[in-house]
Amino acid sequence: MLLDPYNQTDHPECKSRPDSGLSAITELDPGYITGPLSSVWKEWVKWCIEFGIEANGIIAAPYDWRLSPSMLEERDLYFYKLKQTFETALKLRGGPSIVFAHSLGNNVFRYFLEWLKLEIAPKQYIQWLDDHIYAFFAVGAPLLGSTETVKGMLSGNTFGLPVSEGTARLMFNSFGSSLWMMPFSKYCRADAMYLKHFSGGIRKGPNTYQCEQKEFQSNYSGFSTNIINIEIPSTRGIDAYPSVSEFSQTNYSSMEYGLPTQLSFSAREISDGAFFKAIEDYDSDSKRTLHQLKKSYHDDPVLNPLTPWDRPPIKNVFCIYGVDSRTEVGYYFAPSGKPYPDNWIITDVIYEIEGSLVSRSGNQVEGNPGPASGDETVPYHSLSWCKTWLGPRVNITRAPQSEHDGSDVQVELNVEHHDEDVVPNMTRSPRVKYITYYEDSESIPGKRTAVWELDKANHRNIVRSPALMRELWLQIWHDIHADSPSKFVSKAKRGPLRDDDCYWDYGKARCAWPEYCEYRCSSVTP
């Protein structure tokens, strides 16, 4: 699977390409290597077919997740083919498609929307989207990146596979996509580098990267803490770190005398390359990283992907993610004394847990924690960025994930929203997992936006969540009926939808939900 770290070509002895069709997304080949990672969209596809969607109406769009966005198009013509896929689906099905994306797939879809702007005349762009895409369901989207990427780049992340961390790091860092999920500041944006002239040709424009004053007035680039804290042995004094502008006198003295120095870096300082420049003399991979960062991200002709998302210009957008799982948000690194790729070790980890920050040893950590924690992989601040896409007034509903009779449903109507996080004033039963829905009350004209937060739904398994599958189906069924009085499906009550949702209530010695379910005993005669 290794790629050349500079030009992203295949390993000389092995050429790998993504599979195609539904088989590419339902399940990996189960075995010793893949283990519990085998099942991907399998349950989701089964739900769709069970509720009447024809198999040929489900179109998979797998991609080589090792490649940077520009290389996906350069090598595989991925975005050109994806555009053709939408156009073919419209001709065959007679209507627009519904897009589901998970994790990095959301970044891929975002890049496609920007790439499309250079392929379609500006006056036709929105019309093309309206004709071909009815709704976008963004599941587990790392909208401001993921801190776990940093761990993979510096010490290796095995994901439970039987390989060493050093081997995992070596492989991960050979991929151009390794930088695609890096955390970045919500306050810094970049202008497009290239502007296409429809009279012919492409001209190069100013490639500017600018940060709001808030980036320098607040800490942590909109995250809950500094993402990297690293101990560096220095014997050359302050000039060894030309990219790091400010140090305390204590740090300066320790560096001057060659003692280890701990430096801290925010999301912006990681994504703009300052961190990698600071460790360039102590990590042989930094040169490769800086090359890829500039070539494939900062100078990307379509989009600098390491900048905040604006709401996609699609009529219906649903942003869905898990909350309140323990999620890594910061790391402490130190030299291991070993050569690359094992030259750094993690000495401590900072977690966000349900609105607080704690270290691996359990001590409280200062910072700016959010009202909730993330989904085990992506921090809350990154997942919840899509709340900025909501309209100026929001209806909030909190309901149990399991089937319910409506007695534990809480509602707040017309909550004012000012392009930041919105947090409900609602209670929780400690033994109940909830879904909290944030839905436009006053929408952006012509648009509809919703955010769903699922308690304890982790990043990798959320696409297999029965509660999520149920809500997706009910919302789609609601939208099919144009005479529905409300924009969103009611949350007042949830009964079982499938036979698998029925169960025996031992306390009452009967079927639970008798208005939906019945018990049938059949005898078998040999």
Automatic annotation (TrEMBL):
InterPro entries referenced in this protein's UniProt entry, alphabetically: AB_hydrolase_fold, LACT/PDAT_acylTrfase
GO molecular function: O-acyltransferase activity
Domain of life: Eukaryota
A biological process term (GO) from this entry: lipid metabolic process
A Pfam family reported for this protein in Swiss-Prot or TrEMBL: LCAT
PANTHER family found in the cross-reference section: LECITHIN-CHOLESTEROL ACYLTRANSFERASE-RELATED (PTHR11440)
Protein name (record): Phospholipid--sterol O-acyltransferase
